[in-house]
Amino acid sequence: MTKSFPKIYSTFSQDFVSPLFPKKGEKVKVSIVSSEKMDSIILKYDGQTGLVFNKELKEDGRYNGLIKYSISVPTTLDDELFHYYFAFFVGEKSFYYSKKGVTRYTPNTDDRFSLVLDLDAPDWVASATCYQIFPDRFCNANSAIGAKSGEYEFDGGKVTTPNWYDKPKAWEYSRCCDFYNGDLKGIESKANYLKALGVNCVYLNPIFSSQSVHRYDTIDFFQVDEKLGGNIALAELTNTFHKEGIKVVLDISINHTGLEATWLKKALKDENSDERGFYYFNEDGSLGCWQDVKTLPQLNYSSEKLRDLMYKNKNSVMQKFLLPPYSIDGWRLDVAPEVGRRGKSQLCKDVWREVRKNLKKTKKDLYLVGEDWDDSKEYIAGDMWDATMNYYGSGRILRSWMGERDRFLEKAWGHNPEKEEPWNAEEVVSALNEALLDLPGQVPFFSMNLFDSHDTPRLHNDEQVFDREIYKGVVLALYFLPGMPNIYYGDEILLDGELGSNEGARYPMEWRENNWDKDMLSLYREIGKIREEKSFSYDSINILPLDSKAFAIERIRENKAYIAVINRGEERTISLPSFLLPEGEAKVILGNAKITKEKDYSIKIENKKSIVIAIE
Questions:
Q1: CB contact set of 121 (below 8 Å; sequence gap of 6+)
Q2: Which of 25, 271, 442, 510 is deepest in the core (most CB within 10 A)?
Q3: Phi/psi of residue 277, each to 5°?
């Protein structure tokens, strides 16, 4: 009798790797599950001698109806990554199982499962829901502060102070000098609004003293902009938010300053000053600026004094705000892959390794998230950033599912994306899985997943591709991916905006409830509550196509599973494989669908509707 070929599965999760964050030399228990009883399964893993060691796994009970096999082995003492994969036999053939799935050939090192040893990433991120705020455009609570109309000129523009609900003018007219005068006290006042969304982390775009509304042109990194309320207002905000269980992540660009920076003024006044070495100067004596943007002179990390002031010393910029009375919880790192790079000066990775080493000593559970639009694998292997703003592994893919052409195939920074044929489910699943499996095992749990931000047109403002029901599916997908979903302020109410420039994605927040999209707000609150109550955190992740117009994102643990079915197709019945899923009644906890089960689940799903299923 021919033996049937088993279905097998292993992954990086609390059910399959224990401890999930091992120290160097610590024993780790690795597990795999199979639909069939196996004669032998072998774990092949990095040994202390530099060779690959072998150990046979032992049967270890059942897992959601499948046979579980486990073995505990020691990790290595001197490696940053610990690699392993499996070998098994069916009949007279041998096979291997790795991140690539089942193969007849030995998987290469990149395709093997890998764990970062001694990883000090912040545990709170995996279960968090984040909300991004552009401070000038969120809420004004103190009319006594803020910019004054005509107060100063900047980059060819003069300060204006539009009424709160005025439409922002194009950059050619505003020159980033149009202050709506949102402030930190205004943000603080909306803690209850944020909590109702299930938010327990806020990410604030830059708040340091500056001349522009975006505040990436820093004057003094040690001083919160008085137009926002100053240092005292930040201390009060973090104190209030921490009492409410909300973490605070600040945006910083250590890559450049503004033209009015105190450091730059000293550098230009005295060629022999320490500050002169903080900047790049071209051969003609002119300032070296980031991307040749004349208002953003680039910082030169050849200067040890600059490194001390920015992140090394206890009273440095990046350490000061980790300590009381501010006690922020993370830094978002602007243009992170470009820091320290200019011509022959290539100091980027050196700088980020130092930043991590110095800051984690002060606050171990600090979150360091880099802005990078591409594959960031080399920066998030445990020695630089904790994570990236995951445009690459979430937003760019999900926008393609909506039928929007990738911004990096467009001109003008992608602010006028073209419409194209939407990606099908197989293409989306392949892209999502590729992005996840390309990373060391634990790293995806700390991703900041997003599809909108201050640097992108809002997806719902793209009338060429926007479809309310398909868009709802995109939101559900964002919440189910491993890591932390990041809501860009106002997306939950479908805030007005337009394509064409950054200004179109920075409309002032709408606080007149009659103008809110209550249907969308309800969705965000519902999925926020589900994420908050079910706490996916370190659950297993399984992403699979169901047909060409639907895919599932499964978050699985022993005896429980939560499944988002993301659908853009017509009403029909689709099949959801029961492999890996626990026994128990499948209930729709968000949306509407009829579910029956024989061997697999049959789901009669409505036109373009996406749903969330719980099996508990």
A1: 21, 382, 386, 387, 442, 443, 445, 446
A2: 442
A3: -80, -5
pLDDT in tens, 408-452: 998 877 789 999 999 999 999 999 999 999 999 999 999 999 999
Give per-residue pLDDT as tens, 354-389: 999 999 999 999 999 999 999 999 999 999 999 999
pLDDT at 2 > cutoff 60? no
Task: Report the alpha-carbon distance of residue 98 to residue 103 in Å, rounded.
Answer: 8
Write out the two tokens for 560. 């429980």
Q: Are 402 and 474 in contact (CB under 8 A)?
A: yes
Q: Are 404 and 429 in the same domain?
A: yes
- Token pair listed for 275: 């500050």
pTM of the model: 0.97
Closest CA to 262 of 314, 332, 317: 317
Residues 110 and 222 in one domain: no
Q: Any bridge partners for residue 566, and if so which? A: 551
Question: 288 lies in a domain?
Answer: no
CA separation for the pair 559, 464 (Å, rounded): 43
Residue 85: phi and psi, rounded to 5, are -160, 180
Residues whose CB falls within 8 Å of the CB of residue 437, separated by 6 or more in sequence, listed in order: 99
SS3 18: strand
Helix and strand counts by DSSP (H, E) for the chain:
12, 33
Say if 137 falls within a structural domain: no
C-beta of residue 427 within 8 angstroms of C-beta of residue 402: no
Domain boundary, last residue among 93, 116, 139: 116
Q: How many domains does the chain have?
A: 3
The domain containing residue 69 runs over which residues? 8-116
